[in-house]
Amino acid sequence: MNDMIAIYAVVALLSVPLGIYIAFALSTQTNRLDTLFGVIEKPIYRLAGVNSQHAMTWQVYALAILKLHVGLILLAWLVFMCQGLLPLNPDGIPGMPWDTALHTAVSFATNTNQQHYSGQAQLSHLSQTFAIVTLQFLTPATGLAVLVAIARTLLVAKPAKVLNGVGNYYHDLTRTVVRVMLPLAAVVALLLTWQGVPASYQAAHQVEMLDPQVEEVQTIPLGPVASMVAIKQLGTNGGGWYGPNSSVPLENPTPLANVIETASLTLIPVALLIAIALISGRRRLMMGIGAVMIAFSLISTSVVVYSERMPNAALIELSQPGANLEGKELRFGTDLSALWGSWTTQTSNGSVNAMHDSFNPMGGMMLLMDMFVNVTFGGVGVGLIGFFLYLMLAAFVGSLMVGRSPELFGKPLETREMRWISLAILAQPLVILGLSALTVAMPNAAANSNPGFHGLSQVLYEFTSAFANNGSGFEGLGDDTTWWNIACVVALLIGRFLPMLVPLAVAGWLAAKRTAPAGRGTLPMDSPAFMGLTAGVIVIVNLLGFLPALVLGPIAESVVQGF
Amino acid sequence: MNIGIKDPTAINEEEQQTPTFEAKATWGSALRFMVVMAVLLGLVYPLATTTVGGWLFPEQSQGSLVRDADGRVIGSSLVSQTFVSDEYFIGRPSAAGNDAGGVSGSNLAPSNEALRERAQADAQAIAQREGVSVDQIPVDLITASGSGVDPHILLPAAELQVARVAQAREIDEASVTELIDQALENTGWLGSPVVNVLRLNVSLDERFPVATTTSSVIPVE
Questions:
Q1: Is the pLDDT of residue B157 over 90?
Q2: Are strands B73-76 and B152-153 parallel, antiparallel or unpaired?
Q3: What pLDDT sits at residue B8?
Q4: Confidence of residue B9 (pLDDT cuts 50, 70, 90)
Q5: A329 closest CB neighbour out of B50, B113, B147
Q6: Could you say which of B78, B112, B136 has the minimum Cβ distance to residue A454?
């Protein structure tokens, strides 16, 4: 209980000053931070040959994102395949097969960090840092940059001057990385090293076990683990150094480390509510969004905590009665594993400190539902962008309900906008359910390790996690096959770029339209009633899309078990 | 707060209607930016934090290794080991054979028959070894951890093994219990107390060395 209080307290106390700081750090007005961070930022702009002061249209902004990401995917793909020939490989790990390497590159370039490999055994120190840590910084920073670009264009009530662009991608990205992510990650990395997370470029230790009757030799893999775990948690990335992620004591050694890592899951997504409130001046709107997110979060967390306190059905009468400890670490227990599980699926992070595959059916189902919704805080930047997508749909529905022509912040929502908004929302059930159906229809493609209803849940979870850019998994799945790698790449790319770039485009289109003055019939978007409508739209859209699949998977499993 | 970006084209009304943007998204700047960032974030940042961390925390940064009297590495206090002899406390079942190189959970669902079969075999082995009935076994001893290298067991699981270890080492139970207390971790405000099995067994070997070890049951796994 103390741990839970500490985790909530850290997030509550740090998110407010961090949000104020982010708004300040990304402001383009000259301030004292410019002198301090200019030392790093100016050489970056000069070496890259970009002028950070030139505004981009939304099209140029989107194109800059896509070009950088094509480059990043190719670079990471190449590094993974050639790591055997490259330096910083003390354990002599060979190159990755092309399909696993491609999946890994795309997975990290989409802020997903879905892993079809085990890091400590299949990646060199160079791959883990130069390829992966780079992406773990740049992808959340991209989400944050797009969010700020949308806020500037769409949300600012009275822009000081008319903008012809949405901002400059390199400017927003560099400032987010240098002023926000790097200092935070460095502090967290040192705190975690203090708690016992390795920080070393040494090769693994081979150790004979203490008991003379045991002949097996034990490997203790090391590496610059702490630096990766810090940004893995802060940047809603989730891809860990070791295969089972933060359940491994070397990656999450103590209760204090667990408090730091769990709080880091939600810290930036929560702080962004405050940052955007300051940047846009729409405080009531952001408070309303925050209230919906907190309500969703508390419901989900309560259900998962309750579920994991129940015994594991397979173990009844084989021991003293107890909570479901299968797949969980004793230094955390079930409550802290459930809290992490629900937060990691709410925030699109995907790191784990317990094995979700062994959660009780009700808990596992809640994790799936968190990822369907994916805007309960959501990923850095993209969580709020996804919420805006639902907000646009709710504005459309709400305007029609009160008999007005649809509008958003005084700008008319017309056919082009609604067509793309609908596509971005409907792509999710289409891709997840379509690919799941295809996979279970093909003999041997599914490779699920558990039989029956849970086997279907494993397939559904994998594609949901890919599309939601979450990265956690029901990890018994034999997912390192060419089919899984390629099918997930499709879900990863659509799930990342469509829901991120459509709201940017809509913001750009709406900015070019004339503002209608607010009248008596205008839908007040910051009212509790409208927030209730938005929450309702989110719940209804997701239930319509996924309830049948849930009935076939976790709900059936739960009914068979009797709870 | 003004977040408007400096926009060279937004000087007056006429220019606003025919915007010309200098910022272009060229391949050249994208790739150059990528290389600069990869060096800063993928090489400089990990090197800097790893160097400072290693200098400030020399023990923790190298994997919290446990050494014997001669300085030889015999394990890590963060990684469990396999124990089968009666002279040692035994930890949780592991889907990874207690090897941090192959860390893994069982990933068995509660609805999977294989989980019940495994737990049944473990429970019977424990009941036989400790001379208790199955319903006296704490649940942590028959559940595999998430990582497969959870170094801990809960206090009741350690207490269950005291009689057998004391008998095998021919010492009184009180001195074993005393060592359990010394191997307790997370006794502070955060977390709940757990017993570190490797540290406990190392201290047993130091205080009450044995020449040979015995095993009363065929090891599961």
A1: yes
A2: unpaired
A3: 41
A4: very low
A5: B147
A6: B112
**pTM of structure:** 0.94
Question: With b meaning 16 or more CB within 10 Å and e meaning fewer, what string describes A276-307?
Answer: bbbbbbbeebbebbbebbeebbeebbebbbbb
At A548, list the tokens: 């049948």
Beta strands A411-412 and B65-67 are: unpaired
State pLDDT tens for residues A26-70: 887 778 888 899 999 999 999 999 888 888 999 999 999 999 999
- What does the alpha-carbon distance between residue A350 and residue A265 come to, in Å, rounded to a whole number? 9
Q: What is the pLDDT of residues A96-113, one digit of tens each?
A: 999 999 999 999 999 999
A351 contact partners, CB below 8 Å, separation of at least 6: A113, A232, A233, A237, A238, A239, A240, A245, A246, A261, A265, A340, A344, A471, A472
pLDDT for position A563: 63
Of residues A231, A551, A223, the one with CA closest to residue B101: A223
Residues of A whose CB is below 8 A from B65: 205, 220
In chain B, what is the straight-line distance between the N-terminal and C-terminal CA atoms, in Å? 63
Q: How close, in Å, is residue B131 to chain A by CA atoms?
A: 14
Q: Do A249 and B149 touch (CB under 8 A)?
A: yes
Distance, in Å, from the CA atom of A82 to the CA atom of A65, rounded to the nearest integer, reads: 26
Please identify every stretch of chain A with a pLDDT value under 50, giving residue numbers as ranges. 160-162
- State which amino acid sits at residue B133: S
Q: Which residues of A touch B153 (CB under 8 A)?
A: 330
Predicted-complex ipTM score: 0.94
- Contact by Cβ (8 Å): B164, B131: yes
In 10 A of CB B15, how many CB atoms? Answer: 13
Q: How confident is the model at residue B18 (pLDDT cuts 50, 70, 90)?
A: very low
| Partner-chain residue, chosen from A44, A53, A355, that has the shortest CB–CB distance to B105 | A355
Q: What is the pLDDT of residue A162?
A: 45
Q: Which residue of A has its CA nearest to B197?
A: A210
Residue-level pLDDT at B21: 52
Q: Where are the alpha helices (DSSP H) in A30-162?
A: 32-48, 58-82, 98-109, 119-122, 125-126, 134-150
Q: How many CB atoms lie within 10 A of CB A91?
A: 17
Using CB atoms, which residue from B111, B134, B192 is nearest to A557? B111
Helix (H) or strand (E) holding A340, with range, is helix A333-346
Query: What sign has the CA pseudo-torsion A464, A468, A473, A479?
Result: positive
Name the closest residue on chain A to residue B214, using Cα atoms.
Answer: A213
Cα separation, B123 vs A320, whole angstroms: 11
A171 φ/ψ angles, rounded to the nearest 5 degrees = -65, -50
What residue spans of B170-212 are helical by DSSP H? 173-182, 197-207
A 443-502 residues with CB below 8 A of B?
A: 449-454, 457, 474-476
| Eight-state DSSP code of residue A202 | P
Instruction: Return the structure tokens found at A341.
Output: 């599980």
The domain limits of chain B are: 24-59, 63-207
